[in-house]
Amino acid sequence: MHYRKYYQLLPIALQSHFQTLILQAAVLHHEINVLQVYADAKFYSNDIFVQQLFKLATAIILLDQGKKTKAIQQLTSLSQNLISKRVATLAAFELIKLEEKDKTIQPADNLFKLNQLRFNWRGDLLEYGIARHYVAQLTDNKFYAKTLPILRSLIKYFPDQANHDKLPELMQKNLMMFFDQKPEPSLMESLSIFQEFGDLAPNSADGDKIILKATGELVHLDLYHDALDVLKKYTDKMFKDKDIDSKRKEILLYKMAVVELLGKDAKECLKTLARIETPSKEISDDIAILKAEALSQTNDFDVAIASLQDTALQSKKKANFIFLKSDGKKQPLVIKKP
Questions:
Q1: Which residues does 132 contact at the CB level (< 8 Å), separation at least 6?
Q2: DSSP 217
């Protein structure tokens, strides 16, 4: 607004260009002070396209003044504007937001309208603003999965604005909310979302939770190779952090070793377990028993027995191995799926 005197010194063609940009941004963000200046009668343009934005700005000012009925009439007319598709889209967007505020539209109808509207105008901050608003409405209605591809597109095509608005963080949050929602999403939907957006899982306990849930579902489908691929990619990235919590690291390595043994790869299981240098007390029995199971699968019963300590759980497993060895019968390996 401080530059309006310079604005008036510009050639008419440049005035029209800048007025278009100013009015569009001010309408989108409801900058009433700016609109009151550049929608003043003395700035009425001879350009037919700028005139439509001028009328739209006037409707927003009327809303701010509490003249709602008149504003809605003007917005409705402008939403059917045949001269400027930009103005028609902006006007329709304003009407939708009014319906939301007044609660005169059902959530499903609101989402349908916004989804249609976001394809009306592509390539600038108007597209961004509509899509961002649509994401907010989807999130409020707990359609977290539907927000993810839209957020990814906004981050790709509007990187500066998306980072300013912290959309990458919102995308991670919605990914976690998707997996945490009750009732839980279907198995196939979970796997589909994970395979497409699993790389966004944060390097944190929350990220571990998503990874373990998704890989657990893969294991239950006997897709051991796929589960291992996911775990290895995640841990390779995660373990680059030298300050990673040791308990997080040992849990992930243990889960990976379980999947390897379920996939009949005892040697890889033992290699993975060897990476757990000092197991915590809470998981030491589980690790020792899994190691003994892996050794037994390679027919090293003596080594398996010797590897077990005298805790209640390990002693029970040791007795089982001693019985199997004396009986001479090798029973099928049974491991609980994670």
A1: 154, 165, 167
A2: H
Question: pLDDT value at position 144?
Answer: 96
Alpha-carbon span 324 to 319, nearest angstrom: 9
Q: What is the C-alpha to C-alpha distance for residues 114 and 149, in angstroms, rounded to an integer?
A: 15
Nearest Cα neighbor of 35 from 14, 60, 12, 10 is 60
Residues recorded for the chain: 338
111: alpha, beta or left? (left if phi > 0; alpha if psi -120 to 50)? alpha
50's enclosing H/E stretch is helix 48-64
Q: Is 31 helix (H, G, I), strand (E, B) or coil?
A: coil
C-alpha 291/C-alpha 285 separation (Å) is 10
Please tell me whether residue 181 adopts helix, strand or coil conformation: coil
Which own/partner contact pairs does 162-168 have at CB distance under 8 Å and 24+ positions apart? 165/132, 167/132
Q: In this structure, are residues 20 and 5 in contact, taking their beta carbons and an 8 Å threshold?
A: no
Q: Provide the token pair at 38.
A: 């550049």
Q: Which amino acid would we find at residue 222?
A: D
pLDDT tens by residue, 34-54 = 888 878 777 777 778 888 888
- Series of mean pLDDT values for 10-residue runs along the chain (338 residues): 57 66 82 82 77 88 91 93 89 94 94 93 88 96 96 95 95 92 85 84 84 86 89 84 84 93 92 89 89 85 83 83 63 49
Q: In this predicted structure, what is the pLDDT of residue 333?
A: 43
CA–CA separation, 262 vs 267, rounded Å?
A: 12
Nearest to 128 by CA among 167, 185, 76: 167
Q: Is the pTM of this model over 0.85?
A: no
Cβ neighbours around 264 below 10 Å, total: 11
User: Taking the alpha carbons of 266, 268, 273, 277 in that order, is the dihedral positive or negative?
Assistant: positive
